[in-house]
Amino acid sequence: MAPLELVDVWKASIEEAEEDRFKSLQAMDIMHSKIKTGRTLKAITAAVMQEDMDAKRDSADIVGITDWIIEGFNIEDEQ
Fold first, then answer.
1. Does one domain contain both 66 and 47?
2. ∠20-33-28 over CA atoms, to 5°?
3. Which of 13, 61, 75, 77 is spaced 20 to 30 Å from 37 by Cα?
4. Are residues 31 and 46 in the same domain?
5. Residues 23 and 5 placed together within one structural domain of the fold
6. Residue 69 host element (H or E)
7. What are the CA-CA distances from residue 34 to residues 7, 30, 37, 53, 71 (Å)?
8. 58, 65 in Cβ contact below 8 A?
9. Helix or strand or coil: residue 3?
10. Is 70 exceeded by the pLDDT of residue 9?
11. What confidence tens digit (pLDDT) does each residue in 10-58 have?
12. Contact, 28 vs 16, CB < 8 A?
């Protein structure tokens, strides 16, 4: 829960931004989150694919993660 003193500041900032948006759309930038999020799905997918390629290169007998997931999807489709 947000501290009450910050809620009043945030409300005032939002009201000011809404009034100023007709002069400049950049006034609404205050609404953008400043919280850094974790890795993107694209980055995670790329990392998994890289691990898969590394595993295949190191040993031909190891089934890669990507192949394993795709095989699971294929089995599910067949059912």
1. yes
2. 10
3. 13
4. no
5. yes
6. helix 65-78
7. 17, 9, 9, 35, 40
8. no
9. coil
10. yes
11. 899 989 989 998 898 888 888 887 777 788 888 888 888 888 788 777 7
12. no
Domain span holding position 66: 41-78
Q: For the chain, state the CA radius of gyration.
A: 24
pLDDT of residue 55: 76
Nearest to 51 by CA among 43, 74, 40: 43
| DSSP per position, 7-23 | HHHHHHHHHHHHHHTTT
If one counts the domains in the chain, the total is: 2
- Nearest CA to 53 among 42, 41, 67, 40? 67
Gap between the Cα atoms of 69 and 63, Å rounded: 10
Tokens of 39: 């890795």
The model scores a pTM over 0.85? no
